[in-house]
Write the structure tokens for this entry.
Amino acid sequence: MVPRTAFYTPEVTATPKRTEQDVALLRWEIQQMADMAVARDMGKDGEDVPTSGYIRPGQVDLLMVDEANRLCPVSLEMLRDVFDRGQMGLVLVGRPGLERMVRSIAPLASRVGMRLEFAGLNAQELDVLLQRYIQGAGVEIDAEAGECYFSADGRKFSIGASSIASN
């Protein structure tokens, strides 16, 4: 079975037209990969796989949109339409305020089956995450170490020099 999940993060300046094109391309690429996997399982090489310029329904099971708060209402409505026509699941992930945007679009809000809000990690969860992340890298984090400090963009972190030891 071929996983058929597409992940999409819109550009900060994404227009509704660009979002529509990006999502169509993602769905088409997933379809092509699924076709290649099926052909491989049937003993065909990639050159024997017929390609289609059309997106067939059912080829993407789930579309996950990260940073959905970057999308304007028209783009969100377009995603709702893709969801309706494409027979696929849709997950919108975003910052606070996304829920308010979704609720303001009645056709989209009526299709929301679940809403989850995630809090930040506590110290124990952060320790487990860091241990898994550095596993096999020859680095240890002292359990007695000080706090982690995250940069403003939330992507980088640093730990006091005394808390990292190289093996």
About this structure: The chain has two domains: 5-109, 123-166. The two ends are 41 Å apart (CA to CA).
